[in-house]
Amino acid sequence: MFFHLCIALSSLLLSSFASLTSSSTSASLSIYEVLRSHGLPMGLLPKGVTDFIIDDNGRFEVYLDQACNAKFESELHYDRNVSGSLSYGQIGELSGISAQELFLWFPVKGIRVDVCCLQAILAFSLRDSAEL
């Protein structure tokens, strides 16, 4: 079963995309600033990040103080450790996040942001990142 969970974000979020720039990361940036510098909303990760590692190829690992859930259109579950491959406007090879659809939980394999028509669409992919 392959499908995308799409979330329409408000125009307030769109205004934050206008000020984004792609830049190299430094040790002084938080993971939220790294997300923003890659064209992604800072709210993709919950509060409670205790540490993170990112390499020059965009592979990252994020460590949360505890597992937690977040509510968008669907319920998302974040494990204590989240990892993936970060590139501008998307995260691939994602692990550590699950989405609830009806009564079942599915691993989220990727996240992509599409901006069009004065609206940002956040797509949580339950497929492999090659299919994003």
UniProtKB/TrEMBL annotation:
The species this protein was found in: Vitis vinifera (Grape)
Signal peptide: 1-18
Segments traversing the membrane: none
Keyword annotations: Signal
Name of protein: Uncharacterized protein
InterPro entries membership: At5g01610-like, DUF538
